[in-house]
Amino acid sequence: MTSLTGNDQHNLGVDYVILFKVPLQERAQAEAAFVQLIQALARVGLSSTVRRGGDSDSLLVFVRAASRERLARHVRRARMQDWLHGVRTAGPEADASRALKEEPETEAERLRIVYQLISQPINEGGAGVGTSTFVKTVFPLRHQAFNRAWIQKWSKKRFLEQDDIDEIRNKFGESVALYFAFLRSYSTFIVFPAALGFAAWLLLGQFSYTYALGCGLWSVVFFEYWKKKELDLAVQWGVRGVSAIQHQRPGFQWEFETEDPITGEPRKVYPYVKRLQTQLLQIPFALASILVLGGLVVFCNSLEIFINEVYDGPFKQYLAFLPTVFLVVLTPTFSSLLMRAATILTDKENYETSDAYNAALVQKQFVLNFFTSYMALLFTTFVYIPFGESLLPLLDLWRKTAQALVSVGGKTLPTQQFHINPQRISSQMFYLTVTAQIVNFVTEVIVPYVTHKAVVKAHEFQVRGPAPQEQDDAEEAEFLKRVREECHLEEYDVTADYREMVMQYGYLALFSVAWPLAACCFLVNNWVELRSDALKIAISCKRPIPWRADSIGPWLTALGFLSWLGSITSGAIVYLCSHRSRHGPEAAEKSTTTSQLTAWGGLLSVMLAEHLYLVVQLAVRYVMGKMDSPGLQRERRERYQMKRRLVQESMRGDDDEKTRLDETGVTDRVTRETLEEEARKASIPGQGSSEDMFWQRQRGAEDTIIIGRRLIEKGVAGEKKKPVPSPGVGG
């Protein structure tokens, strides 16, 4: 396979760009901060050069490693830290240049180390550069040649290979590569529920027990497989345990220092009890999320049910869009408010490291996304279908409200009898799996690209008048134009892509039994998603900083939770909807006893489905644990070779000593001088013990051989001198 890696000559050797703002009102302070910035970069071994920015009040500071030798020392220091924390099985060579020659650094490793030199605090060996009043952003330049070849290559490939993921790792780091590896594995595994769903749609129809069972088994196998796969990838990429190497978050506020029990170094600490007290606020936060988003869902869904299934008057086809309008307008508003509250709450929890902070924030975001994505379907599944009669008072409230509006003209509100429609959940799934996916693609790829082009054009018109008189050199003009455009791009957030895929997995695991073709739609969507996400990185976003990761983090916990919850909801949907789907609207007109039986039967089906899930999970986990993987084999091989090398080095001294003795011919022969010396020492009181005399009678292996031969000869001679008894004696 042709590699896409290589140096991008169009970047002129630049690793990072720092966008530095110079406000007119704070010009003196900005100038002093600029001088400090350049000096700080030089202290840590980074070269810098400056050009004018896209505005008259901005500068572009270009940064790279000052020399190959200094970069080699920084790379060796980083690898030594990895070895100390158990990430690497062997430490690097003492000679930094030789170590880099034996194991060349990838582009992602170089960019990561340079960024750490820029951003880490001064007491940790960095320049201490971060976003501030004057420093607006720090970002790596995009690799234009690689991006073009990358998109062209992927657009022609039907299926991705591991080499494609490895190239992403070498360019964008393990964090981004893990996402693409997850999406690739998920897209491969989804072929099974897609085929099963298509067969169920043709032969079994909706709400099939067979499909629910097959989809549940699939979710267990995929979850356990991915846990093993991400461990295997972490070992192959040499980042297993890298989460233990964590740097302090800039916003962390510590209260006291203590000695680290492992390293013995001073460690800044924020009391766990205080953080726990703040974390307890997550309970009212979750309740508030349920109340706000749940109330919005009940409001809009009850209005939709009234318009579609009770109201029978004019403009019904237009009024049906009214609940959707409420959802489109109010859901983002409430979600943004709750998301802001989640961020404030996470800031108050005061986490020490960025990884811990991001994990806590992702957990809160998942709770909000769970409610906004699944609340309507859960309402339909567990309220509308089994207990639709309980909605009659709410529907009657809507009827009275509508009647009050139309009674002004003296007209009677036309209505029809309310019937529970089990196909409602299927219609919702169709919208979420087809229409919503198309809208998401447009808003994720096309809209940001068009917006970026519009912003650039508007910016050009805005600065055309007061632009500086200084012109770029002809050799740099095209390059600087591209850099100024990249300054306006959005930062790539891999968390948003994870969120999208995990939410899709939840739709499949929880509700696809209502519409079995959902997996087929997701299969097509994911094929496009792989390439659209690559396109987004290539043209719509800044190049991501190549952070390392050994896991997908809290999203793995979310996958496990959704797999477990899917066993419950699938069983409940099949039990609650299959009867009504077969018998039609008359099934909704049963007595209250039927509702009670439905509740008990639904509870029993949920318990059976959950226990089956747990049993299957234990079995699959046991089988997966017995299976070996290339990554784990490689780790064991490297550890064995390292131990073998240490043993050989320790044995080499003994072999050298043996060779030296053999070459000099030095032995411990028994001579007259040695015997006299031993006798002299033995005559001195306290010098000659019985043990010493026992071992000093023979000196060395040759003397032992000589004495042994003499004893053997004497024994043979003694046997020959013994008289042979006559046969008759003693008879």
TrEMBL record:
It is found in: Membrane. Residues 648-694 are annotated as: Disordered. Keywords: Membrane, Transmembrane, Transmembrane helix. Residues 651-663, 669-681 have a biased composition (Basic and acidic residues). Pfam families: Anoctamin, Anoctamin_N. It is a multi-pass membrane protein. The chain crosses the membrane at residues 176-203, 209-226, 285-307, 319-345, 366-387, 429-450, 507-528, 552-576, 597-620. Residues 168-638 form the Anoctamin transmembrane domain. GO terms for cellular component: cortical endoplasmic reticulum; membrane. One of its GO terms (molecular function) is chloride channel activity. The keyword Membrane applies. This is Anoctamin dimerisation domain-containing protein. It comes from Ophiocordyceps unilateralis.
